[in-house]
Every structure is written in structure tokens, then in C-alpha cells.
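Problem 12. The chain below contains 244 residues. Write out its predicted structure in C-alpha cell notation.
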Amino acid sequence: MDRRPEGRAAPRRVMSLTEDLAARVARDVPDTGYPAYDGMTKLADDDYPVEARRLLAENPGAPLWVFGYGSLIWKPAFDYVEARRVVAHGWRRMYILDLDYWRATPDQPGLMLALEPKGSCVGVAYRMPDDNIEARMIQFVRREAAYREDLASIRWITVRSATETFRALVSWAASRGDPSFIYLPLAEQAKRLARAVGHLGSCAEYLRNTVMHLEELGIRDRYMWQMQHLVAEEIKALHPRDGD
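Solution.
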């Protein structure tokens, strides 16, 4: 059975950031492991159950919903039994997470999406099964936090579906003054996204997948649409081919 949320009917738009353009950036990058950052503490295995229980205690007795606004829309990393299109008021998706791993390297840093506390963001809320809730929370925290300092970006936010308002867990929601978040002009964001590649792939590929799936769900995000166009133009300038 298809459990994906239904999108609203909308004319299909033609993306500037094509599969061919994203492929021009691709290259093999070895996984060298998590970088060591000054002033940051790597989480130990014993830390994850503690943090999972803390987060569950902040929303006791309620179903475990997770809000997806980026890669979770097109690649949920957990089991779920329900998915709803929802809006998070007071948050918007932006490329503000400084990145030198996963889809980037220290020599060619990139950016990842995070939530900034302003505006609104339409995404997908996933409800996890009710069994083994603590284990499911541990799995989620492991995916989203490698360092103790990352934990501050995992929080509960309020989202609204067509029928009700409820709390959902989200990762990488910006805290004021967090050194992991940087605010660059759109042109500088596009330059990073067009160049950065890591062992999990390129930032351009991530952007393309996210915009494609937002469009399929009828979610029109003006900022993301602009970014895919700017990145496409940047890749054409970096890797020109006949017919561009």
C-alpha cells in the first residue's frame, strides 16, 4: 500500500537542474570518517539511550511523529505507518548548515538544509510505529547527531495538517548563535552547492532530489526553486558542454 502523502494537483514545471547537470559534478570521494572538530565532543554509544529518553519525556504519551523538510521527504530513514503533508509555522527551510562531510569535504565545503526560525515550511510528517519507541528514537538520534553539540538542533516543533495540530520531532532546527549555521548570499550558496561532493554524493544531487519531490507533492517553495536554477547555471559555467 502506498503510504506517501497526497500532493495537490499542480502543473508540472521543468527544472533547470537536470539529471545530466547533477551528473557532471559527481565523482568518487572516499569516506575518511567524521572530522575531529575543536571544542566538540563525540557522542558515545551510552549517550544515545539517555538522549532518546530525554526527548520522549518532552512529549509524553503522544505518537512519535518526525517532520521531514529535506532528504527525509525523498528518503525516509525509518519505518513509518502514516505520512501527512503538514505546515510548520515559524520555520523555513534554508541552506544554512555548514558542511564538510557527507556531501562535502574540508577542501570543498558545501551546505545542507536546516530550519531557520522565521516564515513557514510545508513538508511531510511521518508517524513511527507505536512499538519499540525508545529504540526508534535512539536510531533517529544516531542518524542526526554525532557530537554532543548537535543535540541542541533536535527539538519538538508544532506542525499542522489538514485535520489537526500536533508536535513532531525535527533535526537541524537553527539555534541562535550556533556555529554550525552560516548565512551566505544566494550566489555564494549556489557556488558551494554546485561544487561540493562527498562520499554520499553531491550537494547538487541532494538539491535536485529535494526539489523534485517537493514538486511531486505540489509543494511550491520559491527559495528552493530559485536555488536549483542558480546551481544549474553555476554547473553549466563550471562544466560547459555543447547545447547548454
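Discussion. The radius of gyration is 18 Å. Students who got a different answer should revisit the alignment rule from Section 12.3.
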